[in-house]
Structures are given as C-alpha cells and as structure tokens.
Amino acid sequence: MKRIRTGILCLVLVLGAGASGQADKANAQSPNPAPYLGQQPPGLTAEPFAPGRVSSPGYEYGGVFSPDMDAFYFIRGDEEGHAQDFVVFRYEDESWRETVLSPRVGQPFIAPDGATLHLGGRYMERTDAGWSEIHSLGQPFDDIQIMRLTASSAGTYVFDEIGSADGDGVLRYSRLVDGVREAPRPFNAAINTGSFNAHPFIAPDESYILWDGRRTSGFGGSDIYISFRQADGEWGAAINLGEAINTPAWEASASVTPDGRYLFFHRMIQPADGDGLPDVDIFWVDAQILDTLRPD
C-alpha cells in the first residue's frame, strides 16, 4: 500500500494519476465488470459495505463513488481514533487497487459531471493533467464551517455548518444562475427543524435532498431524512427513512450512488460495555427504499 504524507502537492499528483473525469448518466449500468468493489449487492436490508476491505471494527466514513463508478473514495481512521487517511480504491487492470492518498483533507464528494472533487469548504478541479491543487470556495463560503458540500447537475450547492449558534442546525443552498453563484440561502423549515442537521446530499436532478439530524420523533442520536421537491418547487415535509435505516445508533451522511442504484450511509455503534471507541461503518442498501417514501 502506497502511503503519501508529503502534503498537498503529493495528493494532487496521486489523484491526477489515473483519475477519471467522465460521468455515466444517472441510473446507467456501469461498464465495470466488477462494480462496487466486486461486492454482492444488498436488497432492502442495509448491510456493511465491503467488510474486511472497507468496513472494519475501526472508523470508515465519507464513502463516495466517482461518476464513472471506477473509483471509491472514503476516510479511514485507525482503531485508536487518532490518524485518519484519505483512501481510494480504483478499478485498474481488472482489479480494485487501494491507495492511501494523504491524511484526511475533508469529506469527499465528486460533482455529477466528474469535474470537481469537493472537500467540504474546499475543492479540486479536473485538468488535462489530473486534479488541480486544493482551492478555497472563497467568500461568503469561507465564513461558514462546512463539513459536507454536495452539488447537483445544475451546479446547486447544498451544505451544512458545524459550530453554529443554534446547534449545527442550518442547511443552506447556493444556486448557479447564468454562470453566477448566488449567495447562500437557508432551506425552509421543513428541512431546518430540530438540531444537528448536517451532511446533506442533493439528487443530481434536484428532485430530493437527504440529510441527518435530531428530532424528538426520531429513533436515536441522529436519523436520516428525505425531502422531495414538490410541483411548486418548494421542499416537502421531512420524512424519516424509518427503521429499515435508522436505529438508536447514529446514522448520517447519506448519498445515492451515481448510477442511482444504492443508498450509502454511515452508522456509529457504541461498544456494548460502554468502553472503547465506537465502530463507524459504511452501509449500503437498494435505493428502491427511497421510492417507497415518495408521496403519491
């Protein structure tokens, strides 16, 4: 396993080598003969993703596929909860190969067109030579402590804020209109209710948003919710994904794979004896589970 710890320059070089910027259309079948790291896909019961390769007794978080489904990025921590690495599995030469890119640099998300790798409040761009150096989003985004930012095919950003005065509860969006980035605006009360609202994901076609938060009606420490866009353009009532996904544990940071087939999310399970560090794993489940929640 190749470890790179010499800073951002080395990160750029490794990301650029072999990184693909082509994106499949949503719901398209990936041409990869061994998709999803060669794992047997789940049904409507959530399962840990790639046990022994990705999910382990330690810390795995932020899992996301590239739009061409040939690379899987995530964050891995050691079992002691200290060092965290930025890791990628790439499908090369008919096999999935793991590379540790750098220490953690932010929660990854790749824009639907494959041209931008978002890292919370920072990003990298695809160039002819690979990924660029890391850039700041600039003002007014630099004044917001962003944990996760995702983007739609139209360029709309949705993002959270850590450390806000009202308990990390404000999710915002910023549209791209005629090439101009609008100032961030908060979502409506259907979404920004409760506390610790975080880690939003917007569908490429902007038909729904996933996020996690705490509400008195929830199952546990943090639940995953969905809001569907209505005919009038407003966001509908928050819908809890239910007991098939949410438990008394912490569920968070949901997204749907670029091919539209699977819902990925993260679950934190505390040790039964109350001692030691929690186990944070990446789970996946058939994305049809979202269709069962869609209002008629």
Description:
By secondary structure, this protein is mainly β. Helix content is 4%, strand content 38%. It is built from 2 helices and 23 strands. It has helices at residues 8-16, 288-291; strands at 47-48, 59-65, 71-77, 84-92, 95-103, 108-110, 116-119, 122-127, 130-131, 135-136, 149-151, 157-159, 172-174, 176-177, 180-181, 185-186, 195-202, 208-214, 223-228, 239-240, 250-256, 262-269, 279-286. Strands 6, 7, 8, 9 and 10 form a 5-stranded antiparallel β-sheet that branches. A 4-stranded antiparallel β-sheet has the order 1-23-22-21. Strands 2-3-4-5 form a 4-stranded antiparallel β-sheet, with helices on one face. Strand 21 and strand 22 (262-269) form a beta hairpin. The longest helix is centred in the N-terminal third of the chain and has 9 residues, at 8-16. The chain is globular and about 45 Å long. Mean pLDDT is 86; it is low at 1-28.
